[in-house]
């Protein structure tokens, strides 16, 4: 799995996380929100996340 140096990630539980390095392996990601009116970082989510089983 090759890292994408443009997408940093520290979520080791994600299927696309480059193990041993804090990067994502996807070409691009989608960022979304779980709030009606997001006002801070905690309101956003990487919707490309998939649990690494």
Task: Tag the structure with descriptive keywords.
single chain; two-stranded antiparallel ribbon; 25% strand; 53 residues; 0% helix; elongated; mainly beta; 4 strands
Summarize the SSE layout with pairings.
Elements: E1 4-8, E2 23-24, E3 31-33, E4 44-46
Antiparallel strand pairs: 1-2, 3-4
In short, what is this structure?
This protein is mainly beta. The chain has strands spanning about 5-10, 25, 30-35, 45.
N-to-C terminal Cα separation, in Å?
A: 16 Å
Structural class by SSE content: mainly beta
Helix-strand topology string: EEEE
Which band does the percent of strand residues land in? 15-25%
Uncertain stretches: none
Integer average pLDDT: 97
Number of strands: 4
Helix content: under 10%
Going across the biggest sheet, name each strand in turn: 1-2
Shape: elongated
What radius of gyration results from the CA coordinates? 12 Å
Q: Largest sheet at a glance?
A: 2 strands, antiparallel
Q: How many helix segments?
A: 0
């Amino acid at each position: 799995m090759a890292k994408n140096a443009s997408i940093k990630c520290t979520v080791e539980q994600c299927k696309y996380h480059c193990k041993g390095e804090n990067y994502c392996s996807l070409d691009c990601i989608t960022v979304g929100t779980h709030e009606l009116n997001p006002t801070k970082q905690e309101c956003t989510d990487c919707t490309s996340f998939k649990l690494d089983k």
